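Field reference: sequence -> structure
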Amino acid sequence: MKNKTLLLIASGDLRLSANQNCWAEQEAMEAELCKLAESMGYKIERAHAYDPVAKHGFISSQRQGMDIFSKIDRAMPIIVAEAVWQYSHHILAGLISHEGPILTLANWSGKWPGLVGMLNLNGSLTKANVAYSSLWSEDFSGDAHFKSQLNRWFEYGTIEQDTSHVSPYTDNESLSDSVLASIDSIVETMDREKCIMGVFDEFCMGMYNAAIPDELLFNIGVYKERLSQSALFAEMQTVSETEAGEIFNWLLERGFNFHFGSDSEAELTESQVLEQCKMYIAACRIGDRFGCDAIGIQYQQGLKDVCPASDLVEGMLNSSDRPPVKNAEGKIIFEGEPFTHFNEVDECAGLDAMITKRLHKALGQPLEITLHDLRWGDFDASGSTDEYVWVLLISGAAPIEHHIDGWKGSHGYRQPAMYFPKGGSTLHGVAKPGVIIWSRIYIEDARLKMDIGQAEVIELPEAETRRRLNETTPEWPIMHAVMKGISRDQMMARHKANHLNVVYANDSESVRECLWAKAELAKRLNIEVFICGN
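Structure field:
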């Protein structure tokens, strides 16, 4: 590029406490990047100043982002530098209108999840049909490949990444007639009877990529029921203390390990959990009342200010072994199976889970599904494996069947006060060893697409698991995943979201059939499918 001066912006959280706590790490990353750029003959200028009143330098609202971009030369090269989680819609409007080269850039850290924020932004830009390049590194100045790629972007305004692990799915002749018949039945039933996705307030934390336009769902046979978190909170007030106590006692009898304290502002309390039990009953009843096949609760904004977080609720909903809840007619709602929930009302994850549950039920495979953040990854510091091991982590919605020792091996900790002022229990556990299928539905070229691959969940030594938890968010459930046939950088180059869905298969013999069957089902539902890895 002829222009040796580049602009930098940094989108942040909506929550002031998060932006203030994370600013020092962002500032340090920017300083390192600016120093490296200067050594290459380029100057990086911030497009927006540090705010001494707010005590951070993040863009913290959509309006602020629009105002900043209104003063930017649209032809200028721009770097979106992220060391933390960010809300993509703060800057999306400006980037859609921008005409110069765009680089999304992130650190590589579990504690400071800029890579997660960047992946969400990348998925949002992809959906909005905005061209961009991406880079990430743990050590900007010491990473020769990163420096080479950054210098290439400085020169040409674009970077090509290795995505040779991806191949389009067409068909698979190995699928048996019985499996194909099951797929045909699912497609026909969804078309004839239709399905309902219950959405408790759309668009969580600026995740534009996670909202599916209704018209893309119609030809699949899926329709949204737009519900309200206000209605959920109101329904919670109709649940009696006795009913909430029954749910709480059920969890205690199963051996779930709550870690209670007395200071509700910093510790988990029994009253927080009882309120979550009310939310669980209320969510089941509203979802049943509206005939929903799956539900998603937004919760990160709005609900968090009036009641405890929904993560324990979501984990129970996604479990087959969960407390029974009866509807108005006295029938147990989804008895003996999950009432599928998609965390953070990520509709792409919700659609994936809806079709996966139907397929796995037909194939006699596990029905418990969750999304995770693609939070971070590292080699095993203990040396127990030479594989690159990803940290898949989510705030608490993982089903109990995914955890080692189920309820007895799982723990309830208070959600971090920085994000959840009203607290609430997580559903922490360590994922059991086994084979899984991971997948992500996303929107590109105004159509639904799916990336899908196979992974192995491995068990790491306790000290290594603790290291990874301490490097991320130790209160949350964790999965140690090895992606088959995909390097770290290939995964980052291709993935179009901060989330991915995971589901176990019964064994290594059946996992491939499950993967191919899911790819075929998605194709027949008008989703363009890509196989990732080997």
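Note: Residues 219 and 367 are 24 Å apart (CA to CA).
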